[in-house]
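To whoever is on call:

I kicked off a structure prediction for a single chain this morning and the downstream step that reads the tokens threw a length-mismatch warning. I double-checked the sequence; it's 123 residues and nothing unusual in it as far as I can see. Pasting both halves so you can look.
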Amino acid sequence: NKMFFILPGDITIDTLNFFAKESNPDPIQDLVTVGDNFMACGSGSIETWYATGDLNAPFAPIQGRAIARGIVDGTLVNVHDTAFFVGSDGVVYAYGGNGFTRISDNGIEERIRILTRQQAGVT
């Protein structure tokens, strides 16, 4: 649940320079930048962070932008400053900076559920 960062001009990572996911401290599976923000995505939650401009605390979570569902590992992509991913609930979402939008329909979600069950060995 930790994200380490390096200060400008440094060549080594200080182990004290990190942030932790706050809403649900699950392990981080993937990070992606969307505009001036970045998303820290875990299997159980997603948090959106912004650059503060403060060297002592260069990033902070955006209040109200955390969601209590995570991503399916390996599905997060950024296309033209919009993040697309399959949520842990089997729904495909887009995030373009103004919030999360469901972009899949019931048919696509059923295909995702079938594939997920097959990969888990459940028929």
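Update from on-call: the warning came from a stale cache, not from the record. Cleared it. Sanity check on the structure: The helical segments are 106-119.
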